[in-house]
C-alpha cells in the first residue's frame, strides 16, 4: 500500500520546518556564466546545451536547499520549450530531487476529460500497461478543473493508486484571474468558490491520518482575503500558494492559508529564491556566491513565514519535531 500523499507532505514539512515550495523555473538568461560557458563548450548553443545547463543549474540549487525545504515545483513550460532535450532535463531534475529527499510537483496545469485526462495523469504520475516499474514519476501534478468533475476524477484516481497528489487551480495569483474566477453565479457565490466546494467534496474520499486530502488547491498569495475564505471552505485541502516574493506575497499575507494546526499550505516562490544572486554581477558570479545567495534568501523566506505563523499562534505543531 502506498503512503498517503497528504501524510507524507505533513511529515516532511514538519521535518524540514519549512512550508516553502521552491519553483525550479529555468531561464537561461539568468544563469551564471560558469554554467553557461560549460554548456556551450560541451554542446553549443542548442537544445542539448540548454538541457545540460538546466540540469547543472537545478542540481546545484537542489543541493543548496535540500536540507531546508520539503518541496520543489517544476513549471513544465520552461522545459518543454527545449523539446525532447528540455523534457530530459525535467525528468532528470525530478529523479535527482526525489533522490535528495524532496517532494516534486509537476506544475503542468493539465486539463481534460476521460481517457485523455487519464493519459496525462499517467504521463506524470505513472501507470499504463507498458510503463516499467522503475519509471521516474512526479509526486504530484497541478491540473485545471474548469472543464468540470470529469476533468478532476481521472487525475484523482491515478494519483490515489500511486500515492501521489493533485493540486487543482481555484483562485490563481495573476491580476486578470478576476475576469472569470470572480464572476458571481446566480446562487451568490463566485465561480472559484463553486470550484472550491466541488473539490472539497471530492477530496473527502482521499483524506489521510493527518486530516488532509491528497486533492489540494492552488490559491494565490496575492489575494489574502480569499485565502481565508477558501481555507474555511476547504479545511482538509492542502493549498499550493503561488505569488510569494517577486509577485508581492508576504509571510503575514499567507497566514490565512494555514489551518490552526500550522499545516495545510505550501508557499511557492521561484525567482526570489533561485535568482536571488541577480543583484550581484552574476556574469562573473562564483558557485560559492550563488549558493550563499540562495541559502540566504530561502532562510529569509522560512523565517518570514514561520514568524508570521508564530505571531498568529499557528506554529506549534510544525516546530514540535
Automatic annotation (TrEMBL):
Q: Which residues form the active site?
A: 109 (proton donor)
Q: Which SMART domains match?
A: OMPdecase
Cross-referenced InterPro entries, in alphabetical order? Aldolase_TIM, OMPdecase_AS, OMPdecase_type-2, OMPdeCOase_dom, RibuloseP-bd_barrel
Pathway listed for it is: Pyrimidine metabolism; UMP biosynthesis via de novo pathway; UMP from orotate: step 2/2
**E.C. number, please?**
4.1.1.23
Keyword vocabulary terms for this entry: Decarboxylase, Lyase, Pyrimidine biosynthesis
Q: Which residues form the signal peptide?
A: none
UniProt keyword Lyase, yes or no: yes
Swiss-Prot/TrEMBL GO biological process terms: 'de novo' pyrimidine nucleobase biosynthetic process; 'de novo' UMP biosynthetic process
Domain of life the protein comes from: Bacteria
- Ranges for domain Orotidine 5'-phosphate decarboxylase: 19-284
Q: Which family does it belong to?
A: Belongs to the OMP decarboxylase family. Type 2 subfamily.
Annotated protein name in UniProt: Orotidine 5'-phosphate decarboxylase
Gene name of the record: pyrF
